[in-house]
Amino acid sequence: MNLAPGVIAIAHRVKPGLEVAFEEATRGVILAASTFPGYIGSDVLYPTTKRGQWQLILRFDTPEHLREWEESPICQGWIARAEALTIDRPRVMRVNCLEAWFALPEIPIAPPPPKWKTAIVSAVGLYPVISFMPGFLRPITSALPVWLANLVNISIMMPLMTWVVMPQVTRLFKGWLYPSK
């Protein structure tokens, strides 16, 4: 069995006036997916404008578990329900964990940047976080065993990287990561 996670990002443009129904359908998809083996989480990226795209990101522990979900009648039913609420067919991307850091809602169907570029930009975002966060947290973690202090640091750093630092760094380097044709 593959040890890499299975991650899928699905972008939809919702028909005007059906946003509430689509949001309910999205919650239903997440609830249904959460009952499947290997489900590890999801995110919804809301559109920045009324005509923008909604993005649903589903994560499973392996690509095999993701495939089981995608091929299930339950998933197919939710897809049909969601598609009835959208303007066009969804755009679907399969990404690895680091590629998810480089997803920009304003560029929903772009192929991921080359790995060497993602490594450089990841280092740019990660360096200040790993340099300053442990010192900043030291008053809280100094009395803890080393393994627990590291766990606290990582538990704060990873969400910070995922939802704060990398979206900003990716936007900063957008022109280099996603050059115009």
UniProtKB/TrEMBL annotation:
Segment forming the signal sequence: none
Pfam families in the record: ABM
MF GO annotations: monooxygenase activity
Domain ABM: 6-96
Domain of life assignment: Bacteria
Segments traversing the membrane: 143-166
UniProt keyword annotations, A-Z: Membrane, Monooxygenase, Oxidoreductase, Transmembrane, Transmembrane helix
PANTHER family: SLR1162 PROTEIN
Name of the protein in its database record: Antibiotic biosynthesis monooxygenase
Annotated organism of origin: Nostoc paludosum FACHB-159
